[in-house]
Amino acid sequence: MFFDPERNSMEVTEVGAVTSQLPPQEVALRQNPSLPSLCHPAIQWFMSQTSGVTAVLVATADGFEIASVLHQSLSAEKMAAMTSSILALGEAVLAEAELSDCQNVVIESSKGLVVMLAIGDPRNELLLSVIADRNAMLGQVLWAARRCCEQIRQSVLAIATH
């Protein structure tokens, strides 16, 4: 990883991955050591207030985990990458339909549901992914997920302004 002053961006190269260009403020946010600890109280509140929620993940828009409470069978890295991709696809579908501002994507199955939301932080870099069992009520999950996103957004705003 290195900073390229001519392009004012951070170059990140991972083995087996495509090189991506990240603006310095996004790299700074992702590398902020207090960010996971700022997200965990909101995640814990969400899980305690919402019946049926089994996993919650906060990720960056480019698919990297920030904080999570997941059961052992789930990969945080895979969930973060899929959340990023699915929300980007939702945004593309809405753009094609001449709608905009993808607020969430809901995937339902006979065993439960997954809800993915953009947190709406100052630079729109963070995403929330929620997994719930079949006993969860979609309306309650969405309401609590939006409150969780707002709590995280306020925490990120607090560190972004300092």
Describe the structure.
It is built from 4 helices and 8 strands. The model is unreliable at 1-22 (pLDDT under 50). The two termini are 25 Å apart. Helix 2 packs antiparallel against helix 4 (138-160). The chain has helices at residues 24-31, 35-49, 76-96, 138-160; strands at 2-4, 9-12, 20-22, 53-60, 65-69, 104-109, 112-118, 126-133.
Please give the structural blueprint.
Elements: E1 2-4, E2 9-12, E3 20-22, H1 24-31, H2 35-49, E4 53-60, E5 65-69, H3 76-96, E6 104-109, E7 112-118, E8 126-133, H4 138-160
Antiparallel strand pairs: 1-2, 2-3, 4-5, 4-8, 6-7, 7-8
Helix pairs in contact: 2-4
User: Can you count the helices?
Assistant: 4
Q: Helicity level, as a percent range?
A: 40-55%
Tally of structural domains: 2
Radius of gyration: 16 Å
| Quaternary structure | single chain
Keywords:
single chain; 162 residues; alpha+beta; Beta-Lactamase; 2 domains; five-stranded antiparallel sheet; three-stranded antiparallel sheet; 4 helices; 41% helix
What is the compact description of this entry?
The chain is of the alpha+beta class. It has 4 helices and 8 strands, in the order E-E-E-H-H-E-E-H-E-E-E-H. It has 2 domains: 1-31, no CATH class; 32-160, Beta-Lactamase, CATH 3.30.450.30.
